[in-house]
C-alpha cells in the first residue's frame, strides 16, 4: 500500500487540492499535525478512517505508524501543512520508509507563502523590479542552517524574501536586513493566512517589527521583504506584449 504525503494547504479546508481531498476520502488511515490541521479538513476523511494526531509523536514514532499501516494493507494519508516540498520533514520520513519497502507519493499543496501573497494581493515577481524569490527561515531553536545560507548572503542580492519561522525574531531579522535593503524597503507580515485570526501588517524594515508586535503576531507568520511589495510604474511583461510574434513563439516569460 502507499503513504501519500498530502499538502494540506495553509489552513483553510477548501484550499486543499482536489487530488488531496479525494485521497483523504479514500485512505483508511490519516496522520495529521495536531492543531495545525483544521477540523473541517479532517471531515474529508472516510467516516471509519483511523485518525492519528502526530503533534506529540517523535519522527520514529510517526514512521512506525506509517509502516504498521502499510503492513496491515492500508493506504495512508500523511497530511503536511502547506506544501510537502517545504519544511515538512518528508525527506526524513521517506528515508526511513524506503528500506522497509513502503512506497510513497507526494501530493502538492498551497504553501503558506503563496497564501500570504494572495492575502497581500501582490505578485512576487514584478517585471523590472524583482524576478526571483528566496524562501528561507531564521536560525533559532531549530536545525542549523547551511553555512552559506545566511540572511546576509541573500540580502546582498536584493532578492525578494519570504521568511518562515522568524516572527519571534523579527527585530533581529529586520535590523540585519535593513543594512542591505535599506530601512525604507517595503515589508509585510501575514499571520494565519486563510485561517480564523488572519492578521496583516504592512510597512518598511524600519517599522514592521513594531507593527507585528503591536498586532500580537507570534506564530504561523510569513515575513516578506522586497521592493515588489510596493512596486509601481514597472514595465509590462513581454508575455502579453503587442510587439511579440505569437505565431512563431510559444508562450513564455
From TrEMBL:
One GO process term, biological-process aspect? methylation
Q: Which UniProt keywords apply?
A: Cobalamin biosynthesis, Methyltransferase, S-adenosyl-L-methionine, Transferase
Task: List the signal peptide residues.
Answer: none
Q: Give residue ranges for domain Tetrapyrrole methylase.
A: 2-208
Q: In which pathway does it act?
A: Cofactor biosynthesis; adenosylcobalamin biosynthesis
Q: What is its EC number?
A: 2.1.1.133
- PROSITE patterns for this protein: SUMT_1 (PS00839)
Highest taxon in the source lineage? Bacteria
The protein's GO terms of the molecular function aspect are:
precorrin-4 C11-methyltransferase activity
Q: Does the keyword Methyltransferase apply?
A: yes
Q: Which NCBIfam families match?
A: cobM_cbiF (TIGR01465)
Family assignment? Belongs to the precorrin methyltransferase family.
Q: What is this protein's record name?
A: Precorrin-4 C(11)-methyltransferase
The record's gene field reads cobM
Amino acid at each position: 500500500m502507499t503513504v501519500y504525503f498530502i499538502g494540506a494547504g495553509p489552513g483553510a479546508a477548501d484550499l486543499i487540492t482536489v487530488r488531496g481531498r479525494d485521497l483523504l476520502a479514500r485512505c483508511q488511515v490519516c496522520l495529521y499535525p495536531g492543531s495545525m490541521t483544521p477540523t473541517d479538513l479532517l471531515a474529508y476523511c472516510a467516516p471509519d478512517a483511523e485518525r492519528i494526531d502526530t503533534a506529540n509523536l517523535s519522527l520514529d514514532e510517526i514512521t512506525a505508524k506509517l509502516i504498521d499501516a502499510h503492513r496491515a494493507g492500508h493506504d495512508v494519508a500523511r497530511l503536511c501543512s502547506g506544501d510537502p516540498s517545504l519544511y515538512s520533514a518528508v525527506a526524513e520520513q521517506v528515508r526511513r520508509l524506503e528500506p522497509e519497502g513502503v512506497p510513497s507519493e507526494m501530493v502538492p499543496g498551497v504553501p503558506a507563502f503563496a497564501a500570504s501573497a494572495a492575502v497581500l494581493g501582490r505578485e512576487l515577481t514584478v517585471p523590472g523590479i524583482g524576478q526571483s524569490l528566496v524562501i528561507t527561515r531564521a536560525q533559532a531553536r531549530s536545525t542549523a542552517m547551511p553555512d552559506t545560507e545566511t540572511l546576509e548572503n541573500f540580502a546582498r542580492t536584493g532578492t525578494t524574501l519570504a521568511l518562515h519561522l522568524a516572527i519571534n525574531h523579527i527585530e533581529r531579522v529586520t535590523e540585519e536586513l535593513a543594512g542591505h535593503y535599506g530601512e525604507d524597503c517595503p515589508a509585510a507580515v501575514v499571520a494565519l493566512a486563510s485561517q480564523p485570526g488572519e492578521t496583516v501588517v504592512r510597512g518598511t524594515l524600519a517599522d514592521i517589527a513594531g507593527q507585528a508586535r503591536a498586532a500580537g503576531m507570534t506564530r504561523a507568520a510569513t515575513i516578506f521583504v522586497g521592493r515588489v511589495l510596493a512596486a509601481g510604474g514597472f514595465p509590462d511583461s513581454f508575455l502579453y506584449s503587442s510587439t511579440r510574434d505569437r505565431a512563431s513563439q510559444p508562450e513564455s516569460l
